[in-house]
What we know:
Radius of gyration: 22 Å
Distance between the termini: 38 Å
Helix content: over 70%
Largest sheet: none
Structural class: mainly alpha
Strand content: under 5%
Number of strands: 0
Order of helices and strands: HHHHHHHHHHHHHHHHHHHHHH
Amino acid sequence: MxxxxxxxxxxxxxxxxxxxxxxALRVAVIPFDTIENLMDAEHVHAWEQGNVARxxxxxxxxxxxxxxxxxxxxxxxxxxxxxxxxFEVLGVHTAASIFAVHAxxxxxxxxxxxxxxxxxxxxFGPRVGLWAGWAWAFFPYGIxxxxxxxxxxxxxxxxxxxxxxxxxxxxxxxxxxxWAGFGLLAGFAGLxxxxxxxxxxxxxxxxATRLARAGQRWLAPxxxxxxxxxxxxxxxxxxxxxxxxxxxxxxxxMGLELWMGNNGYDTRFTSDQIHPLHDAAELAAYNRMGELAxxxxxxxxxxxxxxxxxxxxxxxxxxxAVYLWTGYWSFSPAYLAMEPTDPFNVPFQTCLTLxxxxxxxxxxxxxxxxxxxxxxxxxxxxxxxxxxxxxxYHMRTLDPLVVIxxxxxxxxxxxxxxxxxx
Length: 422
């Protein structure tokens, strides 16, 4: 290799190499995906994001994610619009379009190396930043879910890590454009998946508190961030109000989600068998009643069951929390027949959680504000799933924080051990 080529390679930022390696690993796995193969006839009709995208391509607007011609407010708009763009170019549910969707997810997931590197470096130093960026490139969950799970999860995860990066800047800068950028980013993330909006007020409050303690202005920047966030999500809220003649807080499916997790079934963490995509009677009721009436009906059923079985509900909420953080639901034969990889996944997920907790304890001793930021996001984001029902992909949004905290522990332990040897 010539000296000029070596010189050019040295100029390539380390995060660019992280992204390239991460992308190559993820794309290489796509052909081996046999679990969530969306080209399988059994899966195509049940791919909710694809069903909405198909309606968009057909000119019906944001249609139902189920087998229905109804207008819908179940899916937030960003990811179906991206899939619709791919469908428009490569065809609806063609092999090329499905591969392109997975490749987009792989790219989005790989790009998270950049904010992970930046956030970790600012939180805990350059060495942790390097470790975290490279750890994400090789992270098993990142590789598998990016290649296998065509959902808004990856875009949401990328948006959340950039929100953390913006929050770090806001805590030391009252410049309005910095806070406006956070509001825009948070609004975009909310249009990917509204559950992330619970994190935005916490990060805003934390940043405002730090500015106030430093004697800098915080009220005007905070108001700017809130106004920009509201303006970003307003068109979607207006669309829902116009189409459904009711205020809908981003999506209207909470009744169904609550019912799927709270109906007496506990063999698995959710009742997929009663979902309209898998139950003909439920789909018929959805089409007959209309979306809002159906969701109200499901909410009433869930609330009635919870009211009649309060002890069961409390225990189920605890089980859901344990499941999300450890991967453990049950080792019964009936459950393992549905989730055969859990005996391998549970130790891995549990170790990740323990590393993250150790990272929070260590950060509290050395960088308490960082500990508060990470702990707040880790605590707030999954709460809604404790009360409704969890899915394995719900926690993937938080994986970058877990990786950063885990790398902080490993680097600190390595530094301490090396110091003792010297």
